[in-house]
Design goal:
The complex is a heterodimer.
Chain A lengths: L3 E14 L2 E14 L3 E5 L6 H9 L7 E10 L2 E2 L5 H7 L4 E4 L3 H4 L6 H12 L4 H14 L5 H4 L9 H13 L5 E5 L7 H18 L2 E6 L2 H7 L2 E6 L2 E7 H6 L4 H8 L39 H5 L5 E2 L5 E2 L12
Parallel strand pairs in A: 3-8, 3-9, 6-7, 7-8
Antiparallel strand pairs in A: 1-2, 1-4, 4-5, 9-10, 10-12, 11-12
Helix pairs in contact in A: 4-5, 4-7, 5-7, 7-8
Chain B lengths: L6 H5 L10 H12 L1 H19 L35 H37 L1 H16 L2 H14 L4 H32 L2 H8 L4 H9 L4 H24 L11 H7 L3 H6 L5 H25 L6
The chains are: A alpha/beta, B mainly alpha.
């Protein structure tokens, strides 16, 4: 059994608005093993990005706060170490790729400068060495003429190239964990595939663990080892990718998989899960999915189901699979 | 990872020819098309050359007092006449220009440095740091700058600061009243930059505060800084002239455009010897106008968002 790179226990992140606290991430626990790719899937606003932000310490007080939980990384709790230590981990041991490559690079700095900075900061390379390494990295992510590209500015490159640069920056210090927050959403399909391939290669070559956040089930099927499905800030189901795609247990997961268009098969109307995501301010002690669920039972309205293990690594939080609950 | 070198990298090859600072080159090309701004720049350059090199060719550069040629009207010997101590007005005008321009630029540099660092720090750290810096700035902004300068100038006279040092102290005084406005502008720009995604990316890269502030944030406001610093030179020259005119700035015998006008601060000189006050007046007027026109041109080129 491989070691866990990061263990997140009972993470809760709230955002405080005038109307009350929004539980963006609500009691989420997850583990990522060495060299494993874990995908978090869910609709917009289900808390998947906030989970990533909480790991990176990007939740800004006072508007938001990680109220509870532990994030174990190499024997340390990322939520309780001081700023200086956290800074040494960020970019070095844990790196992150953002959704919008165009806006994630500083427009007034050259590409080379931006690749070099973490190298100089964490690896303590000299400017000259860092530049040499930057050129290698840019070449590694499949951009030709790296010597010239490092001297150009972000606006001179296309989105796909910029995302490669972002990846080059992220892998520059050989991180143990790479967090990718919807890395392909802003790119067109052909480039999506290239970026995913690249992530897969990084994983294979340097045994980097990847936490990929996406709403695209196609991406999940492509790259994930383990899938976590989130809904309204909670994990509703998780499991190995094959198990989960073949036997989705939670009605929400089933709905998600049904609403995926199948290529070559034209439907009059794509399936969509009826109803709306509940207002995060009005969450009650119930299954958050009950009013959209076709199997809704009386207990679903009054009590919250807990995540329980099923076959293999699969876990589900649904009353349908609890014993001793009257179905109907 | 070479297998992923897709077609995309190749198609962009020609478009992405990496020209160093191509943005600057573009800006200069556009600036060159703006005739008014270029005229302003030409005048500023001319003023500099004349003021800094002109006196070298003047036979009257020693500023010797010569009662025999007091208050002479312009002639071939003295192009702009002589003043009430028999000194050549043209030579003094150019020497005064050196001081006025130096004071203007130096006080601009000091206030831009103070203002942008404090503004950037306030915006970056927020909270208590922001409160302290910005409340001090607000306090200075609530008092009109001229009275502050007058009080400071009067204090200098009271403390009997040696005349040679007054020029440097005037620079500091002008920066003292100049930085709050600048700090505010820089802070507001920095606040928007701070929330940009690339700053989040910089946090995630684990960069230290110094790198984030000076390598990532400040370069984003360089165009703005260039524009406001250019425009503030004009303001500083004016303030220095006002101070010197009232005898609170740079003191004679060191000439500045302001204290040269002050020398003609009586009805007789005003009416009878216009060559004493018209040349420095015109010098202030034209220089400040030229700087402002050039600054406006720069703004149009470097800061397109601020166009009316």
């Amino acid at each position: 059994m491989k070691n866990n790179v990061i263990e997140i226990d009972h993470l809760s992140t709230y955002f405080y608005t005038e109307e009350g606290a929004v539980k963006a991430v609500n009691d989420v626990s997850l583990r990522i093993r060495e060299g494993e790719t874990v995908c978090i899937v869910g609709e917009s606003g289900c808390g998947k990005s906030v989970t990533a932000m909480s790991i990176m310490g990007l939740v800004e007080e006072p508007s938001g706060k990680v109220v509870d939980g532990r994030i174990h990384f190499e024997g340390r709790d990322l939520l309780r170490i001081d700023k200086h230590e956290l800074r040494q981990i960020r970019g070095n041991d844990i790196a992150m790729i953002f959704q919008e490559p165009m806006s994630s690079l500083n427009p007034v700095l050259t590409i080379g400068m931006q690749v070099m900075e973490p190298l100089m900061e964490h690896q303590k390379l000299s400017k000259k060495e860092a530049r040499k390494r930057a050129i290698e990295l840019v070449e590694l992510v499949g951009i030709s003429r790296p010597e010239q590209i490092v001297d150009s500015y972000p606006h001179e490159l296309s989105g796909g190239m910029l995302q490669r640069i972002m990846i080059a920056i992220a892998i520059s210090c050989n991180p143990k964990l790479l967090i990718a927050d919807e890395p392909t959403t802003a790119l067109d399909v052909t480039i999506q595939a290239q970026i995913l391939d690249m992530l897969r290669q990084i994983k294979e070559e340097s045994n980097t663990s990847i936490l990929l956040i996406t709403h695209d089930l196609g991406v999940v099927a492509e790259i994930a080892d383990y899938v976590i499905v989130m809904y309204s800030g909670k994990i509703v189901e998780e499991g190995d990718v094959v198990e989960l795609f073949e036997h989705p247990l939670h009605p929400y997961t089933q709905g998600l998989l049904r609403s995926k268009p199948i290529i070559g098969q034209r439907q009059d109307e794509l399936y969509s899960i009826p109803g709306q995501v509940p207002n995060p301010l009005e969450l009650k002690e119930s299954c958050y999915f009950y009013d959209r669920c076709e199997h809704c039972m009386s207990i679903c309205r009054t009590q919250q189901p807990v995540l329980h293990s099923r076959a293999g690594r699969q876990k589900v939080a649904c009353w349908l699979y609890e014993e001793g609950v009257s179905h109907g | 990872m070479s297998s992923i070198t897709g077609g995309l990298a190749d198609t962009k090859q020609t478009a992405a020819s990496p020209i160093r600072s191509s943005l600057w080159r573009q800006a200069f090309r556009r600036l060159r098309k703006n005739k008014l701004a270029m005229a302003g720049l030409a005048f500023i350059v001319f003023m500099f050359l004349v003021c800094f090199f002109g006196p070298l060719f003047s036979p009257y550069a020693n500023n010797k007092i010569n009662p025999a040629i007091m208050n002479q009207a312009p002639s071939f010997k003295h192009w702009l006449g002589t003043d009430l101590l028999g000194r050549d007005v043209l030579t003094r005008l150019l020497q005064a220009g050196r001081i006025s321009l130096t004071v203007g630029i130096a006080s601009m540099i000091i206030s831009v440095i103070i203002g942008s660092i404090l503004g950037a720090v306030a915006a970056y750290y927020r909270g208590i740091v922001d409160q302290i810096i910005m409340r001090i700035a607000d306090l200075l902004l609530t008092i009109p700058s001229l009275p502050i300068l007058f009080i400071l100038g009067a204090l200098l006279s009271e403390w009997k600061v040696p005349v040679e040092y007054r020029m440097y102290i005037v620079m500091l005084m002008l920066s003292f009243v100049g930085w709050p406005g600048l700090a505010r502008l820089v802070r507001s720009q920095m606040l928007t930059i701070r929330e940009r995604e690339y700053m989040q990316a910089a946090i995630v890269l684990g960069l230290n505060d110094r790198r984030k502030l000076f390598n990532h944030m400040i370069p984003n406001i360089v165009p703005l800084l260039i524009v406001i610093s250019t425009l503030s030179i004009g303001g500083a020259i004016l303030s220095e002239s006002v101070l010197s005119f009232f005898g609170l700035g740079v003191m004679p015998p060191t000439p500045t455009w302001g204290n040269m006008i002050d020398a003609a601060n009586n009805l007789i000189d005003f009416e009878q010897h216009p060559w004493l006050w018209i040349p420095p007046g015109v010098a202030i007027f034209t220089t400040v106008i030229a700087i402002n026109i050039f600054g406006d041109g720069l703004r149009d080129v470097l800061d397109p968002k601020q166009k009316k």
